[in-house]
Amino acid sequence: xxxxxxYAFRDLxxxxxxxxxxxxxxGFFVAIAFLAAAYALTKELKRREQLGWLIPVKEKMIVGxxxxxxxxxxxxxxxxxxxxxxxxxxxxxxxxxxxxxVYLASMKxxxxxxxxxxxxxxxxxxxxxxxxxxxxxxxxIVDIYPHQRVADITVMAAIFGLIGAKIFNSLxxxxxxxxxxxxxxxxxxxxxxxxxxxxxxxxxxxxxxxxKINVWxxxxxxxxxxxxxxxxxxxxxxxxxxxxxxxxxxxPKPFSWIPNWAWAFNYPHNVVGExxxxxxxxxxxxxxxxPPVFPTPxxxxxxxxxxxxxxxSVRKKITTPGLMFGIYLVMNGVERFFxxxxxxxxxxxxxxxxxxxxxxxxSTLLILGGAVLIWYSKKYNQLKITA
Length: 387
Description:
By secondary structure, the chain is mostly helical. It has 14 helices and four strands. It folds into two domains: 5-61 and 142-386, no CATH class; 65-133, no CATH class.
């Protein structure tokens, strides 16, 4: 396993780059997942705009204003922090003496470099705005297309997805949460995908309504990118060994051609330090699982990327609003429901004598909701044709 990119580069290329410890493997793949999803969403929104399914919204924009003090101040603060901390990582931090997260959380850094970087970025913003400044600012009406709002949507998905993932994880592990609520909330681990999906979806749909974006076409366009993001995000779980793995698997392989690590894996050097010590290993991340478990993130990577390519390949053939998203809900729900059978989970819920996991409950609702949406979208389209 590769808790951070230092271990990945050392193992794959033989390069000892200690400062790469600052980049956590799980976070690295989450960032890739968001960027890839944003690219796929932008591409699909543009296609739907060309077909006339999504239209621009006219908005007023004031051009030629001088740079506002607030904008310059925000630019300086952000650039100062980047120069102060990132510069400190390269020229001040000793990776052999201090853990990266401890350094980032401290007041250490190169303040003078932060001031220089902050001043440079602030001056550049001021210079650009000065060139665009007019004697009398003008109010213009411009067309804003849905694909131009993907950056806003991505930021909202990241922020509220994280909040939702933490909230739902706290509900799922309530006993642990009440014992240490602050530690649970600020911990880098303990994220529930469905919590992030639900909260982020609510916020983004509200945003789309406010910006007069057709919600049905937005969610349809989002379906492939959501599946892609989930599959890529699971790479972070697999390569970091973040504890989101399966139950113990000591069963014999059903087929001889299956690699041992794809059937039962012990996640050596996992980032959460679970398991027993690895003989001869010293330093951090020296544990492995014994006995081995099902590598469920690997299975989800394979399945979800296949489902993404299916959704991406059929998207041009599906023209009924809502149908694509309904198919995505069913696919996502079925995939997650069955993977839950071999995942490590808490089963604190009691529903008529059954003890399902939180994900099993939500995935079942997604399957039912997706089926209803498929039926409704087809029926609505038929009524529209016959009307």
